[in-house]
Amino acid sequence: GEDVEQSLFLSVREGDSSVINCTYTDSSSTYLYWYKQEPGAGLQLLTYIFSNMDMKQDQRLTVLLNKKDKHLSLRIADTQTGDSAIYFCAESMNTGFQKLVFGTGTRLLVSP
Amino acid sequence: DAGVTQSPTHLIKTRGQQVTLRCSPKSGHDTVSWYQQALGQGPQFIFQYYEEEERQRGNFPDRFSGHQFPNYSSELNVNALLLGDSALYLCASSWKKSGAQETQYFGPGTRLLVL
Hints:
The structure holds two protein chains of two kinds.
Chain A: E1 4-6, E2 9-13, E3 18-24, E4 31-37, E5 43-50, E6 55-58, E7 61-66, E8 71-76, E9 85-94, E10 98-102, E11 106-111
Parallel strand pairs in A: 2-11
Antiparallel strand pairs in A: 1-3, 3-8, 4-5, 4-9, 6-7, 7-8, 9-10, 9-11
Chain B: E1 5-7, E2 10-13, E3 19-24, E4 31-37, E5 44-50, E6 53-57, E7 64-68, E8 74-78, E9 87-94, E10 105-106, E11 110-114
Parallel strand pairs in B: 2-11
Antiparallel strand pairs in B: 1-3, 3-8, 4-5, 4-9, 5-6, 7-8, 9-10, 9-11
């Protein structure tokens, strides 16, 4: 089945770390993605991880994947007010032609 | 390098009308996917076009149709509009030949309001 779940809301102070969590159900997913959406805008690709990896770091972003528990997390170090947005995780369903299955999104609010 | 572009940015229609949304993929990309994002929800996959054919379809009725042109641009058509079709419509492009790691890049979306 295809189902991706995320917590709805996270509030942090500027300079703290943020951790956004996601669970997915399809063990055949090949890649898992994190996208950022600012108000009124489209989706911006942040990072992705291949399903046979357990960690990927990209500047302030760290992605952790626990394949056994089908749990994905995105850690943002030194969170800034400009990081306030909705964050979506998505699993890729590649049956020859890729489609993305998205979670409902986590709204991150960063206060000064 | 232009990213994914979509037109129009906003659109207001009434129930029963038909609408056409347009998308130009990122340079070098050959595949276009369309998603519907209702307010407060994550995007839902509508369909994907590659080599001018619909290759994969999500759980959307036949009122939703599309087309891909030889230059890889695409259109999404929705007939007999319902109030529930009000949403942000997102186009994403990718490069099929990149294989399993076929990262999709999204446009800014078209916001459709059906009255």
